[in-house]
Amino acid sequence: MAEADPSFADSVFSARGPFAAIADADVAALFAPLLAARGLVLAVSGGPDSLALLLLAARWREVAGRASFPAMTVATVDHALRASAADEAHMVAHLACAMGLPARVLVWRGEKPARGIQEAARAARYGLLAQAAREAGASHIVTAHHADDQAETVLMRLAAGSGIGGLAAMRPCRALDEATVGEGGPLVLARPLLGLTRARLDAIVREAGIQAVDDPANRDPRFTRARLRALAPEREALGLTTARLALLAARCARADAALAAVAVQRYAALARHEGDRLTIGADLWREPDEIVLRCVALGVEAVAGGGTNAPLRLERLERLVEALRDATKEGNMLRRTLHHAVVRIARSGELDIRREPERRRGVETGSRKA
Predict the structure, then answer these.
(1) Is 204 a member of any domain?
(2) Which positions make up the binding site for ATP?
(3) Which of 232, 249, 266 is a domain's end point?
(4) Which residues bind ATP (predicted)?
(5) Which of the given ranges, 118-122, 198-202, 353-357, has the highest pLDDT on average?
(6) CA nearest 54: which of 44, 39, 45, 62?
(7) What pTM did the predictor assign?
(8) Side-chain half-sphere of 221: how many Cα atoms within 13 Å?
(9) Sequence ranges of the binding site
(10) What total of structural domains would you count in the chain?
(11) Does any domain span residue 350?
(12) When you count CB atoms within 10 A of the terminal residue's CB, does the N or C end of the chain come out lower?
């Protein structure tokens, strides 16, 4: 744990009272879904967004007035990618401690990849945060993603040709996958600030009188998100405002949830589990295309189980379902593999899905990969 540094007392003092940039009632509403959490790990990098998260969480604790308030730990990750990173991480830890919150500095050790550094750093960061959450007995990792991040994510997903689930972008809460969590059990990633803009978070930090860390990677044109950020004035002029893109994400999330509920219902009616074999009845092909896709995905994921931590790619699923549908129309049999599952279709249109044998994984066996 970091020790509190008295030199931060003056700047922290100004954060003790209400903020002009956000009412106490709004602060309480932001964090209300987290009141029942077993414990929170706040991911604070020292940038303006995460410092605003720290300030708002501290204010929330003061105005909540609950004896059963969840314990909070501040975790800051030193990626060891910049000479100043260690000092910045310790600044965050001292600041958190001065605000009465326990803090930890987590260091990404070992060699760093020459390519894909942002993706590798992100994976390392969440792995370290998950470990810190387990050690603290916390159920949630809380990040400072905000409305501008959401808008950029929508544009990135749009450019990648994502489906409706992808365009829903970041959700306020989601379970972290096994690859991130490891063996410590389920953890939830919470993003309470998704409804606030970057400008509003900046105002909160300025009001507190705290100097935020400036990470030059946020302006590095090698990274897609930085390029999108630089284009903000142009896209706003075209009507691609942060508010509209965030609204699109919310609408897509709503539609995605509705479609998922229908798909689960139809899958339950059509699927039969018999040992290691799963069958989906031929009436599947009477369903709309989107429901067919989701039912096949549910079947493949149920059979594959923990065989892979990689997500099931939409374009591969679409290719598989298209081939299966064509075979059904022509009365043909077909066998394909997808996501560590073997999918067979009978002439009747019934699907048979089984786990791909271990010895065949990564080896062509005469059946085509979807």
Answers:
(1) yes
(2) 45-50
(3) 249
(4) 45-50
(5) 198-202
(6) 44
(7) 0.86
(8) 2
(9) 45-50
(10) 2
(11) yes
(12) N
